[in-house]
């Protein structure tokens, strides 16, 4: 498993009646482990009377250049993790946390960006927005949908950013109490002037589906439309998993070529070893978080050959058609497989 770090809570910021931000104090010895990219998330260990603990992923809403590590958590009706965090964490509390993970981040902050958020989907989008304004040069358009004015997280901060960057930031609020649930046609009309921007979407599934369809109908290239989905983890990456010994018939291997961080590795991949497990055991620092097929942190692209995934709760049919797979769930099907981490 990834090395868990015990972090103290420096501050709790109450953003709305049902959302709070948790600011962590990162000790010097953990500073390198908690360097993050805008749009990434942290995995927190939440105590549980039934299972000992559960793991929950929450997006970082701070920006790296701010010098803080902050996640924002919104209560959900049946959300065990979100309710426990909002009810129990205080300044001085300690939490076990896995290092940052995730790939929902722009490759360049000098690009013009179109950011679409619904509800608590603003959390990774806020990190991207602040980084773009603080470190990039591109134009930023934010479309932020909420049920009503009282549920707008970061309302004051967004107003302040818009006032400070009138030439670069446009914030468009969509309130369901005023305008109803946004349709594909309405979003298409709203987004048409900005369809050439690189787009990042996060929020409830119906909102993201409508926004994605609107952008598709406007001709936005799929590779410039990025989605982040929130899924509660079924597994617990804080618990050590014991790998089963391979049986006699499982001793074959496939040739594997991996491109990661500018390096190319050539290996013999045992057919019954998941790709991520094998890479980590081989000393290759491949990205991951949940190890259960429920997040996109370990996503990579198959450039030749074929694999099968044992579980996939995050990638859609278009991702699969593009050769994107989850390394934590992938086994080789062909004798040779080539993989790249982009």
UniProtKB/TrEMBL annotation:
<keyword id="KW-0285">Flavoprotein</keyword>
<dbReference type="Pfam" id="PF00970">
    <property type="entry name" value="FAD_binding_6"/>
</dbReference>
<dbReference type="InterPro" id="IPR012675">
    <property type="entry name" value="Beta-grasp_dom_sf"/>
</dbReference>
<dbReference type="InterPro" id="IPR036010">
    <property type="entry name" value="2Fe-2S_ferredoxin-like_sf"/>
</dbReference>
<dbReference type="InterPro" id="IPR001709">
    <property type="entry name" value="Flavoprot_Pyr_Nucl_cyt_Rdtase"/>
</dbReference>
<feature type="domain" description="2Fe-2S ferredoxin-type">
    <location>
        <begin position="254"/>
        <end position="342"/>
    </location>
</feature>
<dbReference type="InterPro" id="IPR017927">
    <property type="entry name" value="FAD-bd_FR_type"/>
</dbReference>
<dbReference type="InterPro" id="IPR017938">
    <property type="entry name" value="Riboflavin_synthase-like_b-brl"/>
</dbReference>
<feature type="domain" description="FAD-binding FR-type">
    <location>
        <begin position="2"/>
        <end position="107"/>
    </location>
</feature>
<dbReference type="InterPro" id="IPR001041">
    <property type="entry name" value="2Fe-2S_ferredoxin-type"/>
</dbReference>
<dbReference type="Pfam" id="PF00111">
    <property type="entry name" value="Fer2"/>
</dbReference>
<dbReference type="Pfam" id="PF00175">
    <property type="entry name" value="NAD_binding_1"/>
</dbReference>
<dbReference type="InterPro" id="IPR008333">
    <property type="entry name" value="Cbr1-like_FAD-bd_dom"/>
</dbReference>
<dbReference type="InterPro" id="IPR050415">
    <property type="entry name" value="MRET"/>
</dbReference>
<keyword id="KW-0479">Metal-binding</keyword>
<dbReference type="InterPro" id="IPR001433">
    <property type="entry name" value="OxRdtase_FAD/NAD-bd"/>
</dbReference>
<dbReference type="InterPro" id="IPR039261">
    <property type="entry name" value="FNR_nucleotide-bd"/>
</dbReference>
<protein>
    <submittedName>
        <fullName>Ferredoxin--NADP reductase</fullName>
    </submittedName>
</protein>
<keyword id="KW-0408">Iron</keyword>
<keyword id="KW-0001">2Fe-2S</keyword>
<keyword id="KW-0560">Oxidoreductase</keyword>
<keyword id="KW-0411">Iron-sulfur</keyword>
<dbReference type="InterPro" id="IPR006058">
    <property type="entry name" value="2Fe2S_fd_BS"/>
</dbReference>
<keyword id="KW-0274">FAD</keyword>
């Amino acid at each position: 498993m990834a090395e868990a770090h015990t972090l103290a809570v420096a501050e709790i910021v109450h953003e709305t009646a049902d959302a709070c931000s948790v600011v962590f104090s990162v000790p010097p010895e953990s500073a390198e482990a908690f360097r993050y990219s805008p749009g990434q998330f942290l995995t927190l260990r939440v105590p549980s009377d039934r299972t000992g603990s559960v793991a929950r992923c929450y997006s970082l809403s701070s920006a790296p250049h701010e010098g803080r590590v902050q996640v924002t958590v919104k209560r959900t009706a049946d959300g065990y993790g979100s309710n426990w965090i909002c009810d129990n964490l205080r300044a001085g509390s300690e939490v076990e946390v896995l290092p940052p993970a995730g790939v929902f981040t722009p490759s360049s902050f000098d690009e013009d960006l179109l950011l679409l958020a619904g509800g608590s989907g603003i959390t990774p989008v806020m990190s991207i927005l602040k980084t773009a304004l603080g470190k990039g040069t591109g134009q930023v358009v934010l479309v932020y949908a909420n049920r009503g004015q009282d549920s707008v997280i970061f309302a004051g901060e967004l107003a302040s950013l818009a006032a400070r960057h009138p030439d670069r930031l446009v914030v468009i609020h969509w309130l369901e109490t005023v305008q109803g649930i946004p349709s594909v046609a309405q979003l298409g009309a709203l987004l048409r002037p900005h369809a050439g921007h690189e787009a990042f979407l996060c929020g409830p599934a119906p909102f993201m589906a409508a926004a994605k369809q609107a952008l598709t109908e406007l001709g936005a290239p799929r590779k410039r439309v990025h989605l982040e989905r929130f899924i509660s983890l079924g597994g617990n990456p804080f618990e050590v998993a014991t790998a089963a010994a391979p049986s006699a018939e499982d001793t074959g291997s496939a040739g594997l070529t991996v491109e990661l961080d500018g390096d190319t590795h050539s290996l013999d991949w045992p057919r019954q070893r998941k790709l991520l497990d094998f890479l980590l055991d081989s000393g290759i620092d491949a990205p991951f978080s949940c190890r259960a097929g429920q997040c996109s942190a370990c996503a990579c692209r198959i450039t030749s050959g074929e694999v099968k995934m044992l579980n996939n709760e995050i990638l859609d049919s278009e991702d699969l058609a593009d050769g994107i797979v989850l390394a934590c769930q992938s086994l080789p099907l062909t004798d040779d497989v080539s993989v790249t981490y982009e």
